[in-house]
Amino acid sequence: MTEPVFRAEGLTRRYRNGGAEVVALDSVDLTLDRGRRLGIVGESGSGKSTLVRLLAGLDRPTAGRIWFEGTEITGLPERRLGFLRAAVQMVFQDPRSSLNPRMKVGDIITEPLRSRLVRKELADGDHRARLAEVLAEVDLPADSADRYPHEFSGGQRQRIAIARALAPRPDVLIADEPVSALDVSVRAQVLNLLTDLVRSRGLTLIVVSHDLLVVRHLCDQLAVMRGGRIVEAGATGAVYSQPRQEYTRALLAAIPRIKVG
Amino acid sequence: MTLLDVRDLSVSFGRSRTPAVRGISFDLAAGERLGVIGESGSGKTVTALAVMGLLPENATVTGSISLNATEIVGLDEVGMARLRGDVISMVFQEPMTALDPTMRVGRQVAEVLRLHQGAEPGAARERVVSMLGEVGLTDPQRVADAFPHQLSGGQRQRVIMAMALINSPDLVICDEPTTALDVTVQARVLEKLDEVLTASAAACLFISHDLAVVSQVCHNVLVMLDGEIVEQGTVADLFNRPQHPYTRGLVATARLDQIEPGERLPTVEDFHARRP
Amino acid sequence: MKKAQLVAGLVLVALVVITAIVAVFWTPFDPIRVVPSQRLLGPGWPHVLGTDGFGIDIASRLMIGARTVLVVGIISVGLASIVGVPLGMLAGQLGGWVDEVVMRSADIVYAFPAILLATLLAAVYGSSTLTAMIAIGVATIPAFARVARAGAKQVMASDFVLAARASGTSRWGVAGRHVLPNIAPLIGVQASVGFAMAILAEAALSYLGLATPRPNPTWGNMLRDSQQFLVTAPLQALWPGLAIALAVLGFNLLGDGLRDYLDPRLREVS
Fold first, then answer.
1. Which domains, from first to last, does chain C contain?
2. Which ipTM score applies to this complex?
3. What are B62's strand-pairing partners?
4. Around Cβ C141, how many Cβ atoms within 10 Å?
């Protein structure tokens, strides 16, 4: 029985906003096996982004424990997290703010390769070659490397962000609202790219979205979050066709469908 | 009766060689709801701003925009200000930036009312609270006394709607009004928008990149691409018999729930090659 | 309108810089040697702006003054930014008690006007251009620290810094590769404005005798020297005053113009 990729127990995250205390995550348990594709659905304030940032080691929980491939990561100092950073990469929601406007695209994409933490974990390789490889994989022209983010469209920038995430050859890809900031007509391209990449590289995928249709398309497992807790979870098809919770039903009903006449 | 008549409208910025809007023409009857679909860069927002007279200084506008027989192109700021908030109003995408963070919400709505109707503070308050109730805000008294940051995204957007509708304008322009909202909130706000528009018989120009969202409020749709109108028709026409390849691509790409999970999604490029 | 501002600023600043550079190699007349026979001549030929109370050509002294002004500006702004920017970045990036300590220290320094610092230094080391530059530089550190801190805080809140952390980039890497390039424009604007303030401060200090001593010319001490002749030769006061005003105006316009020019570029055009 292989070790699950991620395991979380009693994960809680509290913080102070102004005078009040906000409970972003309330005692969440989670298990994710290798090769699975998990979708985390919820609206703003549901805690979904907080959860994945904890998993990616970008934030520390107030309480609870997290294991990555059997190794506990809660409480590990940054300098010992190299193995996590090399294996788990993230794509953020807004392609306008997730790319440094003053850095060339080539430097942005190879940044994970150049950090000392991650370098130790990877086999040494030619960065330029890897850059060319990864640009081809996301279907961007090779000369993109010398240009700046503002020269690209939203969809292309999201592909740059995906290329950056792929550069260190991670095992896990976490996509936080990967297409929400894109026009509807551009989403299909990015979704197709994600589907192909996950399949061809055997990636374990976590997708965070408020859009149930996106999650349905990309994931085989689904968790619905509300108010910092997971309220429903299961196989995507089952949750979609037979939602047990009122809230899940409300989410499904709210999806805008083309109203003809 | 035609409310808005746009003829050969072209807009370009500064010394740019490519115009943002290229000679478009369309009209809107009183009480009609027209959706404008397009991607970023299609010129849809620029068109809306042109109708509102809100384009930046470096914009060159040619053609004609006629609202109730008043020509808007070339109209001076004073004349335009008289129309805005009264005859024509706008609901923006980002409710946080459209509201003054230092002013209570009720007062902001009242300002719009007083500007055009000169009502007294007492009478204005009543109308403001009533309007806030009409747009679906529960406890409108409390909302009127709140500051924008104390309200949720959906509540703020309803406040903007109240501001846009309080003077019973002839035309309401909505620019991606629900894009920043959660899906359940979006559904409710669109429903309420449909209701209040019907109640006030105002015409509506609804701009979005999402055909499904537009179809909740509008019957007719324009499709814009690279500054031009490539197709026009009812939602049913566009959906069942799309003519232009780009429209076909849009319709194909909009139905995510029709594709099997994991299968390749049709993209717009499958139908229409983009300009490089 | 915005572009005109930037151009005007550039022109004025260029004028000062070119004058200063030329002055290193050549001035029409000796700016220091006293020539009693030529005292207080009005503008004409060959002394285009006239001569001062010691018979020295005003135009030549003005040119050397420009050189001094440039040196003072560069050294004091340089000092302020080399110390202030890293401190501000540290405060903005790390937050917490580091932020508190740096900012409170900056407040304390801020409370001492340049003039007080210059007086203190002059009392210990005697007045000179160097003491003036150090005093002005130190007094300007808090302004740079504040701007750098605000910029750093904004950058730290962005998604691309989060992405950098996810890539394993160290704190130093984030500072050098992400924070610094993105706050550079803000610092540039601050430097331009800082230059203007340094010119004014130096003029004030020279006027008070706390900076460059006679006979070396600075615009400030030229103003002071011209005071005794205000009734008999009023034009003498005009030239240095005009020079100061134009230089300060130039740097301020440049700073404002840069700020306006950079703002829309950084913003998205959808």
1. 2-269 (1.10.3720.10)
2. 0.83
3. B10
4. 23
> What is the per-residue pLDDT for B150?
87
List the subunits that have 3+ CB pairs under 8 angstroms with C. Answer: A, B
* C160: chain A residues, CB-CB within 8 Å: 97-100
**Can you tell me the mean pLDDT for B71-99?**
84
Cis amide prior to A61 (ω within 30 degrees): no
Q: Which residues of chain C are within 8 Å of residue A130 when distances are taken between CB atoms?
A: none
The closest CB to that of C168, out of A82, A96, A164, belongs to: A82
**Residues of B within an 8 Å Cβ radius of A:** 39-41, 153, 182-187, 190, 209-213, 215-216, 235-236, 239-240, 249-250, 253-257, 259, 261-262, 264-269
In terms of pLDDT, which residue wins out, B114 or A97? A97
Quote the percentage of chain C above a pLDDT of 70.
96
* Domain boundaries of chain B, sorted by first residue: 88-168
pLDDT tens column, A83-106: 898 899 999 988 888 999 999 999
Q: Is the CB of residue A51 less than 8 Å from the CB of residue A40?
A: yes
Best CA proximity match to B163, nearest among B77, B103, B86: B86
β-bridge mates for residue A38, sequence order: A206, A221
Residue A148's φ and ψ, nearest 5 degrees, are -105, 155
Residue C137 has pLDDT above 70, yes or no: yes
Residues of C in contact with A116 (CB under 8 A): 168, 170
Q: Chain B partners of C270 at a C-beta cutoff of 8 Å?
A: 40-41, 45
Q: Least CB-CB distance to C168: which of A85, A150, A164?
A: A85
pTM to 2 decimal places:
0.83
B252 vs chain A: nearest CA distance in angstroms?
A: 9
Does C266 have pLDDT greater than 60?
Answer: no
Residues in A closer than 8 angstroms to C164, CB to CB, are: 100, 111
Residue from C160, C178, C180 to probe the interface with A (highest A Cβ count within 10 Å): C160
Confidence grade of residue C267 (pLDDT, cut at 50, 70, 90): very low
Q: What is the mean pLDDT of residues C32-52?
A: 78
pLDDT, average across residues A187-199: 91
Q: What is the pLDDT of residues B120-147, one digit of tens each?
A: 777 788 888 988 988 888 889 999 999 9
Helical (H) or strand (E) element with A13 = strand A6-17
DSSP string, B99-149: S-TTS-HHHHHHHHHHHHH---HHHHHHHHHHHHHHTT-SSHHHHHTS-GG
Q: Which residues of B touch A219 (CB under 8 A)?
A: 261
Helical packing angle, C96-111 and C129-156, nearest 10°:
150
Q: Is the CB of B209 less than 8 angstroms away from the CB of A216?
A: no
- B264/A260 CB distance under 8 A: no
Query: Contact, C216 vs C173, CB < 8 A?
Result: no
Mutate to test the interface with B, among A93, A182, A184, A205 (most CBs of B within 10 A): A184
Cβ atoms of residues B221 and B208 within 8 Å = no
Q: Search chain C and give the residue with CA nearest B13.
A: C269
Chain-chain contact of B187 with A254 (C-beta, under 8 angstroms): yes
Long-range contacts of A25-30 (CB under 8 A, 24+ apart): A25/A50, A25/A51, A25/A54, A25/A61, A25/A228, A26/A227, A26/A228, A26/A229, A27/A63, A27/A64, A27/A229, A28/A64, A28/A228, A28/A229, A28/A230, A29/A230, A30/A6, A30/A223, A30/A230
